[in-house]
Design goal:
Chain lengths: 257, 269
């Protein structure tokens, strides 16, 4: 017998099944979720997501958290079917904890990437049936290389490194172009800008996505709803509180809208 | 041969004697609550004896490393599957012990054709609020006890009582208080175990120059100084102040040094 350290395998041995294909009924609109982005800034990686979940033309929810903290140093941002994405997040969270506690060491960053890839691969039948497509971004601190990194995935589980940035979701085509422009011809590349400036960029990008994509929720100041923005550095994952986002939005974003 | 009841009882009795002997050389474990959370402390030689089990659960053990490892894996498996299928709040020490661990250990102890687990376990659980912390200890025969302020593991219940008696008299508020009290309690326990062992072997006093009855800090730290030469201090904290769901962290040597008397600290490295 070997040392068991694979939580997903353990679940399956106990009869758990993930990624069951099911054909979506005609006319049935599935809930999906929307614009997520990640880019490298001066101190690490910023990951952000809007708060809207939609089903067809219907806004299902405007307080969705699409930037999931998987452990102290990793974040998965989700676009696609939230039911499947949250389940993936829960499996990953428990897998990483289980590995750390059984093996008395952290799972390597490559190991974490592979774990997500494996889940996406098992989810292919559901993704192709139209009931469970998820295209996430995974970002985390790689202690082996002493740097924060960004990876993005297609719905089949292929893994790509976002060297400077990555985007996913229905609003992503809009901001992909902006990111390329800002990063290439801006005053300085994104990787050189400090935290506050990076936050402003993220708010502006998500506001732009919301402008052109009805499935992306912008800032709702009346309800006090701001995007979720998290930073990953060597010291861990930190969330920017709404109290700090509000003044930044009012001064640096809203006047330009 | 064990079909007859009296022979079975005799076999279980022999097993108890055998198991009691296995723990005489083991290192005691101390668990104590403080304002910051729950501190677990022991001295180990090579193999660690303190482990993280779940977000608010930590384990301290005595006994055979392979048995401890097997039960640790069982606990981890139960806790994580339960946490995934239900929620983190449903993973409680009480359920893990009463419906998982204790029956397994008891069964192994009473199946006289098979090997028992040579293990004693202390499970500490950080409550959602201060004052709600709890401990569970399980003996090698599957019997368990629940405690609230502190708990100890040692070779015999007499030694455990002695340690608990010493710990009860300590006033513990801060983490520093807890570290000092836990280490001194450990010495009280280890010294009592040694004495039983030495008496058994006909030795009057192996550790010459030490007053075996004294429980003042200096005498206790002097004893510890000798132990440190061959073992390392192991401290883990279920830290209420840690951000995020996982509250377990090991206390590093540098942190420990700031909490111990200065003349003792250098020998920790």
């Amino acid at each position: 017998m070997g040392m068991q350290s694979d939580f997903y395998q353990l679940l399956r041995e106990q009869g758990y099944v993930f990624g069951v294909p099911g054909q979506a009924a005609r006319g049935q609109e599935l809930t999906t979720a929307t614009t997520i982005l990640a880019f490298k800034y001066r101190d690490g990686v910023l990951v952000a997501g809007d708060r809207r979940a939609t089903a067809g033309n219907m806004v299902m929810y405007d307080r969705t958290d699409k930037v999931l903290e998987i452990d102290r140093h990793s974040v998965m941002a989700i676009a696609g079917v939230p039911a499947t994405a949250y389940e993936m997040g829960r499996i990953l969270e428990h897998s990483f904890k289980y590995y750390r506690r059984t093996q008395l060491q952290e799972l390597s960053f490559e190991g974490k990437l592979r774990a997500l890839s494996k889940l996406l691969k098992d989810n292919v039948p559901a993704a192709l049936a139209g009931t469970g497509a998820v295209a996430p971004i995974f970002a985390g601190y790689d202690f082996g290389q002493e740097t924060a990194k960004i990876y993005f995935y297609d719905i089949l589980g292929a893994e790509f490194e976002g060297v400077d940035y990555a985007v996913s979701g229905s609003g992503s085509p809009t901001i992909r172009g902006i990111l390329h422009y800002v990063n290439t011809w801006g005053e300085q590349p994104l990787s050189a800008i400090p935290e506050e400036q990076a936050t402003v960029q993220a708010l502006r990008l998500l506001t732009s996505a919301a402008e052109f994509d009805s499935a992306t929720g912008g800032v709702n100041r009346e309800a006090g709803l701001y995007p979720v923005i998290k930073f990953i550095t060597a010291s861990g994952v930190r969330t920017m509180p709404d109290a700090q986002l509000k003044p930044l939005f009012e001064v640096k974003v809203s006047r330009h809208v | 041969m064990y079909e007859e009841p009296y022979k079975w009882v005799e076999a279980v009795g022999n097993r108890r004697t055998y198991l009691d002997e296995q723990f005489t050389e083991g290192a005691p474990v101390v668990g104590v609550t403080c304002g910051r959370g729950i501190l677990l402390m022991t001295m180990s030689k090579g193999t660690p004896k303190l482990y993280e089990i779940y977000d608010r659960l930590a384990l301290g053990g005595m006994g055979h490393p392979a048995d401890l490892e097997k039960l640790r894996f069982n606990l981890l498996e139960m806790a994580h599957v339960e946490g995934f299928n239900r929620s983190a709040s449903d993973v409680t020490g009480s359920r893990l012990v009463k419906y998982g661990m204790a029956p397994t250990i008891k069964q192994a102890f009473e199946e006289v054709f098979k090997a028992p687990f040579i293990v004693k376990i202390l499970l500490a659980e950080l409550g959602q609020k201060a004052g709600k912390d709890s401990f569970l200890t399980i003996n090698y025969d599957g019997t368990f006890e629940e405690k609230s302020q502190y708990a100890v593991l040692a070779a015999t219940s007499a030694v455990e009582q002695k340690m608990a008696g010493y710990l009860r008299e300590q006033s513990i508020a801060s983490l520093e208080d807890a570290v000092g009290a836990a280490i001194r309690t450990w010495v009280v326990g280890d010294r009592a175990q040694r004495r039983v062992l030495d008496d058994g072997e006909g030795h009057d006093e192996v550790r010459a120059g030490l007053d075996q009855q004294a429980t003042d800090s200096e005498t206790l730290y002097a004893y510890l100084q000798r132990c440190i030469a061959e073992k390392t201090v192991e401290c883990a904290l279920l830290d209420r102040h840690v951000q995020g769901p996982s509250k377990y962290r090991a206390l590093g040597i540098d942190e420990l040094k700031t909490m111990l008397p200065k003349d003792l600290s250098p020998s920790l490295s």
